[in-house]
Specification:
Order of helices and strands: HEEEEEEEEEEEEEEEEEEEEEEEEEEEEE
InterPro entries: PhoX, TAT_signal
Number of strands: 29
Distance between the termini: 38 Å
Low-confidence stretches: 1-39, 362-368
Helix content: under 10%
Protein name: DUF839 domain-containing protein
Length: 456
């Protein structure tokens, strides 16, 4: 039964430690053939003698790429701030896996994405993507620039036609912050041959602080999250393309951008009981997608407004629904309530929005973590979740039955012995054959390949 606003407000309050679920999570993992076999994990994490990555017994890692090392293409050095990432299958008779990796570089970045002719949008911008090609043994065959001249490339998402949509998490305009062009766009990247997509902003998809996207494979609708830390917070969008499922380059034909309205709920943070759902979700046209004068989240959407949420981050498609993550909400920042992470499910056919997961504040590996960020399906069913909170940083697994287990822990101390600090994880994804997990450490920029008994 749908909750009323009065019921929601009555339930809101300080969230205790732990994690809550709307029954089992099997509906999230409809796309995973092994969803019903989820277990409680792979055992305790074993400290890595090399001080890079702690894993359960039986698992091992390989460092594929490291910030500051030469790119194999000879175009310069491997950029830092490794963030969102996706793995794509090889074409017949060629390499085994293609990775596309974001670099969330701002103007202060130590290792910028090298500019490459034909792949650079704004020569004054330090961000972009790199592409890594792997053979069947997991060895790096090539590493090159896939797009350059963008800024703050945080996350994104794959398309059904096997391209990567990289998202700029910024709203700088030309002449601001040292940039020569407007920023805050989505760009399409071809993992096999980036020059076929070039560096063209998909302007109709909106100019705002993008985080991630997910594409409905049935009709080509693109769902987009906006990561805004300050009030008014970000929105959840859908983009209706003029050429749905048209393949590489079709999104450049334009379309219509809309923002989600949950009637009677201006801020999703007040919803704190799993299973709460809302029917009759509305989609409101965005007045000015290019935000020429006013950022989209500040614009006037007319009577009823739209629904906001602090720190909307990960977004993915599973089964017949789209799932998106709110990393946290803090009333001190202007949020209507506090929480330590939510996962929402939107069913387009039923126009229903449901809260399916709520996270607790703990970072101890014996308990669930806080601040979920990038998220993906796991080979044995359930999710792999990158933690972006305080203290030690983990990749957590979450089974369809609601059991949380540690999968990896960062062992690189980027602080001091007295005040240790660990770089967050990002971009967790799996190879097409589901035998290898790829994940990034944001700082120092490192890409790992993790193999082991995934089907155990």
């Amino acid at each position: 039964m749908s909750a009323t606003r009065r019921q929601i407000l009555a339930r809101s309050g300080a969230l205790g430690a732990g994690i809550a679920f709307a029954g089992t999570l099997s509906e999230i993992f409809a796309g995973s053939a092994a969803a019903a076999t989820g277990t409680a994990g792979y055992g305790p994490l074993i400290p890595d003698p090399d001080g890079l990555l702690d894993l359960p017994a039986g698992f091992r890692y390989r460092v594929l790429s490291r910030e500051g090392e030469p790119l194999r293409s000879g175009e310069g050095l491997v950029p830092g701030n490794c963030d969102g990432m996706a793995a794509f299958p090889a074409r017949p008779g060629r390499a085994h896996t293609h990775l596309v990796r974001n670099h969330e570089n701002r103007q202060t970045a130590k290792h910028r994405v090298p500019t490459v002719e034909g792949l650079t949008y704004d020569p004054q911008a330090p961000g972009g993507c790199t592409a890594i090609t792997l053979d069947r043994q997991g060895r790096v065959l090539d590493e090159r620039v896939a797009i350059a001249g963008t800024s703050t490339n945080c996350a994104g998402g794959p398309t059904p036609w096997h391209t990567w949509l990289t998202c700029e998490e910024t709203e700088f305009k030309a002449g601001e912050g040292g940039y020569a062009k407007d920023h805050g766009f989505i760009f399409e990247v071809d993992p096999y041959d980036p020059r076929r997509t070039g560096a063209h902003p998909l302007t109709a998809m909106g100019r705002f602080q993008h985080e991630a996207i997910a594409v409905d494979p049935r009709n080509g609708v693109v769902y987009e999250t906006e990561d805004a830390f300050d009030h008014p917070f970000g929105l959840f969008y859908r983009f209706l393309p003029e050429k749905p499922l048209g393949g590489r380059g079709s999104l450049r034909a334009g379309g219509r951008l809309e923002a989600m309205r949950v009637p009677g709920v201006p801020d999703l943070s007040v919803v704190q009981e799993t299973g709460t759902h809302f029917d009759g979700i509305e989609w409101v046209p965005v007045p000015d997608p290019l935000a020429k004068e006013t950022p989209i989240r500040f614009q006037d959407f007319g009577g009823g407004g739209v629904t906001h949420s602090q720190k909307l981050e990960g977004c993915y498609w599973g089964g017949s629904c789209v799932y998106f993550v709110a990393s946290f909400a803090r009333s001190a920042n202007g949020s209507a309530a506090d929480h330590f992470g939510q996962v929402w499910k939107y069913d387009p056919q039923r126009r229903r929005l449901t809260l399916v997961v709520v996270f607790g504040p703990n970072t101890d590996v014996r308990l669930p973590g806080e601040s979920p960020d990038n998220i993906t399906l796991a080979p044995s069913g359930g999710l792999m979740i990158c933690e972006d909170g305080d203290g030690a940083q983990h990749v957590f697994g979450l089974t369809p039955r609601g059991q949380v287990y540690p999968m990896a822990r960062g062992a690189q101390n980027i602080g001091t012995p007295e005040r240790p600090e660990w770089g967050e994880f990002a971009g967790v994804t799996f190879s097409p054959d589901r035998d290898t997990m790829y994940v990034n450490c944001y700082t120092p920029g490192t890409t790992f390949a993790v193999t082991g008994p995934w089907q155990r």
